[in-house]
Amino acid sequence: MRGRLVVGNWKMHGELAATARLLQALKAALTPVEGCAFAVCVPFPYLAQAAEALRGSALAWGAQDLSEHDAGAFTGEVSGNMLRDFACRYAIVGHSERRTLHGETDRTAGAKLGAALRSGLTPIVCVGETLAERERGDTEAVLARQIDALLQAQGVGALARSLLAYEPVWAIGTGHTATPDQAQRAHAFIRGRIAAADAAIAADLSVLYGGSVKSSNARELFSMPDVDGGLIGGASLAAGDFLAICAALSQR
Ligand code: PGA
C-alpha cells in the first residue's frame, strides 16, 4: 500500500526561539501512525536545530531545495550530502516558487531529483500549472511536460524512490484551494502518465496535494483515492493547524 504523508514547507519563515517552540509543540503532540509519515521542511539554518529537537520523534525533517551538483564552486548552494549530514530524510525539488522566482526549469527539477537520490534523500518533486495555463485548458499538457522531463532525466525507476506533489500554482498561498475533484483529476492524470512507463511504480507512488491546505479542507482532499497526503505551506507554521492536518490524514 502507498505511504501517506503530511509534509510542512516552512518556506522562508522562522527565527530560533519561535522555531524551537514550534518543533517542541509538534514533537510533543505527534505519535507514530501506521502507514503515515509526518515531516517538516525547514530553512537550511534551522536543520541542525530540527535534527537535535526531533531525533527519535514521529516527525522527520528535510530541506526545501538542494543543489543539482554534489560539490564544487557553487557559491550559496547546499548539496544533498550536506543535508544528509543533518539527517534530512526529504528534499523538496522544483517547487513553483523556485521555478517562477529563481529561474528553475523542468531540466533543473530533473537534475535535482537525481542529486537528491544520489545522496540518499527522498525527493518531493513538485509539479503544477499556473492559473493562465489552467484557464487555457492546458493543465494536463503542463503536467505531462513536467512529468516527462523527470522521466527523461532520471528514468521511471527514480520515481520508485521519490514522492510527487501536485501543487497548482494558483492555489499556493492564495487561499484558493483546488476542489477535491480538481485535485483527484490531476492526481489521476499524473499517476496515469507514470503508469504508461511503469504501472507498478505508478501504483506505489505517493502523490501529495499542495496549495492552501487547511485543517478545514484537509480531510476532504485526503479522502480522494489518488491523494496520498499534503504539502502544507502557511498552515504548517501554526502547531495546532499542522497537527489537525496530520490528524485528518491519520483518520482517513
Ligand atoms: P500553501 O503553500 O499551503 O501556503 O498554499 C503550499 C506550498 O507552497 O508548498
Task: Please supply descriptive tags for the structure shown above.
eight-stranded parallel β-barrel, alpha/beta, TIM Barrel, 42% helix, 8 strands, binds 2-phosphoglycolic acid, single chain, 11 helices, 252 residues
Tell me what the structure shows:
42% of the residues lie in helices and 15% in strands. It is α/β, with parallel strands linked by helices and 252 residues long. The protein has a domain at 62-236: TIM Barrel, CATH 3.20.20.70. Helix 5 packs across helix 7 and helix 7 runs parallel beside helix 8. It binds 2-phosphoglycolic acid.
How does the SSE layout of this entry go?
Blueprint: E1 4-9, H1 16-29, E2 36-41, H2 47-54, E3 59-63, H3 80-85, E4 90-93, H4 96-101, H5 106-118, E5 122-127, H6 131-135, H7 139-154, E6 163-166, H8 180-195, H9 199-204, E7 207-210, H10 218-222, E8 229-232, H11 239-250
Parallel strand pairs: 1-2, 1-8, 2-3, 3-4, 4-5, 5-6, 6-7, 7-8
Bound molecules: 2-phosphoglycolic acid.
The CATH topology assignment of the domain at 62-236 is TIM Barrel
If strands are numbered along the chain, what order do they take across the biggest sheet? 1-2-3-4-5-6-7-8
Give helix and strand order, one letter per element, not per position: EHEHEHEHHEHHEHHEHEH
Give the CATH class of the domain at 62-236. Alpha Beta
**Rg over alpha carbons:** 17 Å
Spell out which ligands are present.
2-phosphoglycolic acid
Stretches where pLDDT is under 50 for at least 5 consecutive residues are none
Q: Compute the average pLDDT.
A: 97
- Give the count of helical stretches: 11
Major sheet summary line: 8 strands, parallel, barrel
Could you estimate the helical fraction of the residues in percent?
A: 40-55%
N-to-C CA distance:
14 Å
Q: Label the CATH architecture of the domain at 62-236.
A: Alpha-Beta Barrel
Q: What sort of overall outline do the alpha carbons produce when their principal axes are compared?
A: globular
Structural class: alpha/beta
Number of strands: 8
Strand portion: 15-25%
Give the CATH H-level superfamily of the domain at 62-236. Answer: Aldolase class I
